[in-house]
Amino acid sequence: MPLTHVAIRRAQPSKKSRKMFDGRGLYLEVSPRGGKWWRQKYRFEGKDKRISLGVYPDVSLKEARRRCEDARRLLAGGVDPSEHRQALKAAKAQRNSNTFEAVAREWFTKQAPSWAPSHSSLIMSRLQRNIFPWLGGKPIADINASQLLEVVRRIERRGVLETAHRVLQNCGQVFRYAVATGRAERDLSADLRGALSPVKKKHFAALTDPKKVGPLLRVLDGYEGSLIVRCALRLAPLVFVRPGELRRAEWTDIDLEAAEWRFTVTKTETSHLVPLSRQAVDVLRELYPLTGHGRYVFPSGRTPRGNRPMSENAVLAALRRLGIGKEEMSGHGFRAMARTLLDEVLGFRPDYIEHQLAHVVRDPLGRAYNRTAHLPERRTMMQAWADYLDQLKADGRDPVSRGVR
Predict the structure, then answer these.
(1) Which residues are catalytically annotated?
(2) DSSP codes, 88-117
(3) How far apart are CA 107 and CA 176, in angstroms?
(4) Residue 251 falls inside a structural domain
(5) What is the C-alpha separation between 274 and 355, in angstroms, rounded?
(6) Same-domain pairing of 37 and 109
(7) Is 339 helix (H, G, I), strand (E, B) or coil?
């Protein structure tokens, strides 16, 4: 007898699985724990086989019968329903592996080990927020240039133009990876060159006029806040590292006897050495009794044990409290100050300066120099720079350039 809704609903489990047949190979299997599965028995190429058609009550009796008839039509056409189902799953998996998001994550997995953690996190965050919700589920080969443009223009309309350009650049990298792995024909981002408004580059505010540097240094020396921030303000122009590298400086990386500071450049994940002038060592020795017991040279005031660095806004906020406006100086501005005056006033070779700024400097053959190259010359340069700043601070006059070349 064909099954009925009432019979299925009232079916109770027993010690062993039992089968309730409906006809045409369809039956309901009731497990000892009470689970109810739709099954279909069939014969293909002389072998008895069966497939699952779903779980009751998610799959009703009517739906189970429909699935049963679909399988019988495949059999009538000489197709094994089980093999047909496996082929469909394989095709779906293939489609899923070819979506933009799947290709992007695969590309990211291969590239991320060579990036700094902060950089890799930023790349994935951009894609997750700006691309995946709209293009992530589409097969990458089916995406066209107009669809990509609409997504990046959505970012542009939010007013973050630089982010829009960077996201488009990242998408281009994903498309080129898809081309290399045979999942796309070409890089669509190349068609969108000039489609976005150009980014107006803004330079960090910096003082590069020697006549203004002296007064600035005297103002910094007059800071009356915490000793930690005061020392950071005094050290920043002497070492001219990136603000994030200064605030995350660790005592284990500093050798006061050798007058050296070694750390890993956050932007490139490469080692860097900063020769410390006598003035820089004096600043650090003054601070050591207060923070030398902890990890960070400049710990956050909110963590007495020193296990967190100072806020990224600490130096900038101190500059503003001293009356130094954002159009005059920024935490990054000490780098531009040193780059300009070391070259134009003190006459040091540009490659020495670029090395000290932790920029990539290449030899005539295009190879990057070792980070410790020209160390004796850079020691001389850093001491000359500190002495020059002292003279500017003392009388505001522009000392005679050293003419070092």
Answers:
(1) 242, 267, 332, 335, 359, 369
(2) HHHHHHHHHHTBHHHHHHHHHHHHGGGS-H
(3) 10
(4) yes
(5) 10
(6) no
(7) helix
**Rounded to whole angstroms, how far apart are CA atoms 358 and 268?**
9
CA distance 254 to 241: 14
Pick from 65, 43, 44, 42: which is nearest to 54 by CA? Answer: 65
Please check whether residues 226 and 363 belong to one and the same domain: yes
Phi, psi of 273 (to 5 degrees): -125, 130
Which residues, 6+ apart, have CB-to-CB distance to 152 below 8 Å? 130, 164, 167, 168, 171, 192, 196
pLDDT tens per residue, range 214-259: 888 888 888 888 899 999 999 999 998 988 899 899 999 999 999 9
DSSP state of 187: -
For residue 292, which amino acid is it? G
Structural domain containing residue 36: 5-91
User: For residue 295, what is the domain's CATH number?
Assistant: 1.10.443.10
Out of 138, 165, 192, pick the residue that ends a domain: 192
Quickly state the pLDDT bin for 399 (edges 50, 70, 90).
very low
pLDDT at 267: 66
pLDDT tens, residue by residue, 298-348: 998 777 566 789 887 888 888 888 887 766 677 778 888 888 888 888 989
Query: Residue 57 maps to which CATH number?
Result: 3.30.160.390
Tell me the one-letter amino acid at 305: R
Same domain, 253 and 156: no
